Amino acid sequence: MSTYQLAVLAGDGIGPEVMAQAHKVLDAVEQKFGLNFQRTDYPVGGYAIDLHGEALPAATLKGCEEADAILFGSIGGPKWDTLPLEQRPERAALLTLRSHFDLFSNLRPAKIYPGLADLSPLRKDIAESGFDVLVVRELTSGIYFGQPKGLSGEGEEEYAFDTMRYSKKEIRRIAVSAFEAAQKRNNKVTSVDKANVLVCSRLWREITEEVAKDYPEVELEHIYIDNAAMQLLKDPAQFDVMLCSNLFGDIISDECAMITGSMGLLASASMNSDGFGLYEPAGGSAPDIAGQNIANPIAQILSAAMLLRYSLNETAAADAIENAVVATLEAGVLTGELLSAEERHKAASTDTVGDYVVQQLLKG
Ligand code: NAD
Ligand code: IPM
Ligand code: MN
């Protein structure tokens, strides 16, 4: 029996609620595929601040270092919003983990499944034209991490600054991720930038063009971020892989999630060059709906499937989870945010969706 060590960091808000569903699904996978996931829970985010005074306690980081992969929930919330930036859950825990493990390659797959165009807020004909995009987001550099950042000056002259910076090496490795992914999909990379204004984007284009030469069968297109945001709503079927810097990928991936129907559908993998990864929903702790058993657990469940696929190479189990999720959506077992106001009385709870996915998985 294959045994794997997983560090599970559920975090804040809806994190623990949706993580409970991922646990159920992993239990079912163990049963069906004869695998053994040795899961250890560690405190992270605001929960860890309340418990231990810091968002990423040393024991949590050590547990992650010793694991085969990290399954992450979500962190942050109003309670911790007034802390200095460097102590907040977002930076002190999540950005630190990304940086510590050099998780530069962030994959966020968004798809409208055949027959499920009704879930999309896009006009019917546009939603039905097809949408199957992989956002490849650079995750450990750019304006999130560039130094210096801070405040200077005084009074009305006081100003704030962040630094956007990219090295050729950093651009090259994420571009390679995008082209490698495109080769396994529909052979198209759309690189998203602001090369009409930003020096970083000019270098981004130059290096992306260089990398493209090694992948002659993959078509490369460049698009400005503002136009990309618009084209996604006008003609989403034109995209395959969208290659983005850190900030642009953050924004574009939320838009892609919503095109499929909900933030709660978008999973993600954040990996380094050794194949080690952290897997988490692209959305946050959703304080507006936390604690009500109404959050959509699909992104968390699909993040577990990505973990099996990319870090553990358990392809059959990953496929089985994804098929069970599609069957659940097709059966109309949906959390409320996926339904119109008139249909919302038919909403399934977080638990019900988790249970249904398990049932489909064991049946399939
Ligand atoms: P959010 O993603 O938490 O919520 C945005 C909207 O999407 C909300 O209306 C929320 O209800 C909805 N939503 C998100 N996930 C959902 C789900 N699974 N099911 C149903 N609806 C869902 O973003 P926000 O409100 O801007 O941020 C809230 C907190 O989360 C902030 O502290 C933010 O910094 C943090 N955050 C954390 C992560 C992470 O842990 N990876 C990601 C994004 C935001
Ligand atoms: C995401 C989140 C994070 C980001 C925040 C919480 C730091 O929005 O994973 O998309 O901006 O990367
Ligand atoms: Mn985001």
Automatic annotation (TrEMBL):
Name assigned to this protein: 3-isopropylmalate dehydrogenase
GO biological process, one term: L-leucine biosynthetic process
Residues of the Isopropylmalate dehydrogenase-like domain: 5-357
Record text on cofactor binding: Binds 1 Mg(2+) or Mn(2+) ion per subunit.
Gene Ontology MF, one: 3-isopropylmalate dehydrogenase activity
InterPro entries, alphabetized: IsoCit/isopropylmalate_DH_CS, IsoPropMal-DH-like_dom, Isopropylmalate_DH
PANTHER family from the UniProt entry: 3-ISOPROPYLMALATE DEHYDROGENASE
Positions that bind NAD(+): 77-90, 284-296
Keyword Protease set for record: no
Key words, A-Z: Amino-acid biosynthesis, Branched-chain amino acid biosynthesis, Cytoplasm, Leucine biosynthesis, Magnesium, Manganese, Metal-binding, NAD, Oxidoreductase
Gene name as annotated: leuB
Superkingdom of origin: Bacteria
Alphabetized PROSITE patterns for the sequence: IDH_IMDH (PS00470)
Its EC number(s): 1.1.1.85
